[in-house]
From TrEMBL, chain A:
EC number of the protein: 7.6.2.11
GO MF term (any one): ATP binding
Protein name, entry field: Spermidine/putrescine import ATP-binding protein PotA
Biological role: Part of the ABC transporter complex PotABCD involved in spermidine/putrescine import. Responsible for energy coupling to the transport system.
Signal peptide: none
Ranges for domain ABC transporter: 8-238
Family, per entry: Belongs to the ABC transporter superfamily. Spermidine/putrescine importer (TC 3.A.1.11.1) family.
Gene: potA
Any matching Pfam family: TOBE_2
TrEMBL record, chain B:
Keyword tags: Cell inner membrane, Cell membrane, Membrane, Transmembrane, Transmembrane helix, Transport
Membrane-crossing residue ranges in chain numbering: 12-33, 64-90, 102-123, 135-158, 179-198, 233-255
Protein name (database record): ABC transporter permease
Domain ABC transmembrane type-1, chain residue ranges per copy: 64-252
Subcellular location: Cell inner membrane; Cell membrane
Classification via InterPro entries: MetI-like, MetI-like_sf
Entries under Gene3D superfamilies matching the protein: MetI-like (1.10.3720.10)
Family from the record: Belongs to the binding-protein-dependent transport system permease family.
Subcellular location, principal: membrane
Membrane topology annotation: Multi-pass membrane protein
């Protein structure tokens, strides 16, 4: 199978059920051979979008384009998209080989060619030895790979994945994540994945689109989203984050400073907001350090350890601060400068670029 | 977890109910083996003469054959229309289809004598009285509810994502129906077919109204036998009927067990 990815575009896609809006004006581009993940909590509209792409749900407004051609009105059986369903939807009355052969049989392909393709597809997912088994005789991970083989065997224009790993246990999930990623590299097709698992989204995707309440909040490469979240929701949903609220006190080239109580925090920003306005900064727990006596940083804050847990690779500290409430801090255990204990006074430090200004979309959510 | 074992009261009541159900049926077994020339319990010894009578009588054999053919035709009609109706209602799944499904159950809700009178009036105009086709039609239509019930039950357990998966892979509606939906609900269809067959096989009331001389089904002949001459051959036929029906029910049970696996 060669690199035969197709480009998909969503233009102003909306879906309403009565007065409920499941998807609101979502526009997205998926490039040739790209791995795009739609990420969001349940009810964010991500599955509805996937079902619109697959053709099972008719959008209320907007268009779906494949390589520039409008396919919005095309029924699912004529779209030529492979799909891995949540729970896999393997046909229980057919063997693994018959399941994989199904899309070829539908296309009235000759028996010899069909067999060769089924074998190649089963080889691709390393299940050739299981061809004559029934799906019920396979483990969850194996069933998932059969579903993948079945979705890929007819060389679809696009592969759609609906929470493909959600039914698996954690260890298997990590294993199949690697396999899925390698598979995508190898066959070079365009993948559209839906998940609520932020780790899966970060590790698999070329690009992630974050959705909430049917709206597209932000899209970009995983690192871009993690390092520069645009809103409070994105920072909170993708990884963990502390939020520092304050009033803009000073603006300078390439950044600004906020004040809360007696504390002043500087941040990097291209366009600083107006002086005196409220601002919210996102600060990742791993981007803070415990400062030793006399050590300085661009931002520092005093606090007291209110609680801590040992997580193997790291410590998670809850540091009580006078102006920002409880800050969550993680330290790698192997070179932690202190042995944490409750009541210990500490000084936290971080770089200006680590505290990222974000829009506070929480109020907006409550209104929605 | 330990299964909760039934107490003595539950066991005795269960036994009484089972006896209550089985005794009236089992009484015909000794009656069918009577050595007397009329319907009675055996006096001096057991005899199989009445079975011989049945198996060598052209009237009884003719009726058995006729009943069998009518039941077969009625089953075919009931299975095809009942299955299509159930699948249609399932796919559309609207309030109106729920109503339609309830409507399909009418033949088992309405007393069959009412239905028989209606059929008699209609069939007279259509020249279907005392015809094989007429009885097969009437039995087929009244057999539909059994198929609709069992197929709807099978469809309720059918994962709708399988249909989506099939269509997503390019299968047309008829391919999806043939390769995915029908194989999955086949046990339900067979079950419904068996019930529709049994329904026609032992149906008497409608036959009394819409058939007279040319169509003379097995239940009709038993009925006439009781009214006219109390021939113990009827008991023998009844035993054969019970054995046959029990066989069909066991077949149904086996099919259900296979589906459960």
């Amino acid at each position: 199978m060669s690199a035969a990815g197709h480009a998909l575009a969503l233009r102003g896609l909306s879906k309403r059920y009565g007065s409920f809006t499941a998807v609101a004006d979502v526009s997205l581009e998926v490039g040739q051979g790209e791995f795009l993940t739609l990420l969001g909590p349940s009810g964010s509209g991500k599955t509805t979008i996937l079902m619109c792409i697959a053709g099972f749900v008719e959008p209320s407004e907007g268009a779906i384009l494949l390589d520039g051609r409008d396919i919005t009105a095309l029924p699912p059986e004529r779209r030529d998209f492979g799909m891995v369903f949540q729970g896999y939807a393997l046909f229980p009355h057919m063997t693994v080989a018959e399941n994989v052969a199904f899309p070829l049989r539908v296309r009235k392909m000759g028996a010899a060619e069909r067999e060769a393709k089924v074998r190649a597809a089963l080889d691709l997912v390393q299940l050739a030895a299981f061809a004559e088994r029934r799906p019920s005789q396979l483990s969850g991970g194996q069933q998932q790979r059969v579903a993948l083989a079945r979705a890929l065997v007819f060389e679809p224009a696009l592969l759609l994945l609906d929470e493909p790993l959600s039914a698996l246990d954690k260890k298997l999930r990590a294993e199949l994540q690697d396999e899925l990623k390698a598979l995508h590299r190898r066959i070079g097709r365009t993948f559209v994945n839906v998940t609520h698992d932020q780790e899966e989204a970060l590790s698999l995707s070329d690009r992630v689109a974050i959705l909430n309440h049917g709206r597209l909040i932000q899209q970009g490469a995983p690192a871009e989203l993690y390092e520069a979240p645009r809103t409070r929701f994105v920072a909170d949903f993708l990884g963990k984050s502390n939020f520092l609220a304050g009033t803009v006190q000073e603006a300078f080239a390439g950044g600004f400073a906020i004040g809360a109580g007696a504390t002043r925090v500087v941040t990097a920003a291209a366009a600083p907001p107006a002086l005196g306005s409220r601002a919210l900064l996102s600060l990742r727990p791993e981007k803070m350090a415990l400062l030793a006596e006399g050590e300085t940083a661009e931002n520092t804050v005093q606090g007291v350890i209110a609680g801590w847990s040992y997580l193997g690779a790291g410590y998670a500290l809850n540091v009580e601060t006078p102006d920002f409430g409880t800050l969550r801090v993680t330290l790698p255990t192997w070179n932690a400068p202190i042995a944490p204990r409750e009541g210990l006074a500490v000084r936290l430090g971080w770089r200006a670029a680590a505290s990222v200004p974000v829009l506070d979309d929480l109020d907006q959510d409550r209104a929605a | 977890m330990m299964a909760h074992r039934p107490g003595w009261f539950a066991r005795i009541s269960a036994g009484v109910v089972a006896l209550y159900l089985l005794l009236p049926i089992s009484i015909i077994i000794p009656v069918s083996m009577t050595d007397q020339r009329f319907l009675s319990l055996p006096k001096q010894g057991l005899s199989l003469q009445h079975y011989v009578t049945v198996l060598f009588s052209p009237e009884w054999l003719g009726s058995i054959w006729q009943s069998f053919l009518i039941a077969l035709a009625a089953t075919g009609l009931a299975v095809v229309s009942g299955t299509l109706c159930a699948i249609g209602c399932w796919r559309l799944a609207r309030r109106s289809t729920d109503l339609l499904r309830a409507l399909m159950l009418l033949p088992i809700i309405i007393p069959s004598i009412v239905y028989a009178i209606g059929a008699y009036r209609y069939f007279a105009g259509l020249d279907l009285l005392d015809r094989f086709l007429g009885v097969a039609l009437a039995h087929g239509v009244t057999g539909i509810p059994y198929v609709v019930i069992t197929v709807s039950t099978a469809l309720a357990a059918f994962d709708p994502r399988l249909e989506q998966a099939a269509r997503g892979m390019g299968a047309s509606l008829s391919q999806t129906l043939r390769w995915v939906i029908l194989p999955r609900i086949m046990p339900g269809i067979l079950s419904g077919g068996i019930f529709a067959f049994i329904h026609s096989w032992d149906e008497l009331v409608i036959v009394l109204f819409i058939a007279s001389r040319d169509v003379f089904t097995l239940p009709r002949r038993i009925w006439d036998g009781i009214n006219e001459n109390l021939d113990p051959a009827m008991a023998a036929v009844a035993v054969l009927l019970v054995v046959f029906t029990t066989g069909l029910l066991l077949l149904d049970l086996a099919l259900r067990r296979r589906r459960a696996e």
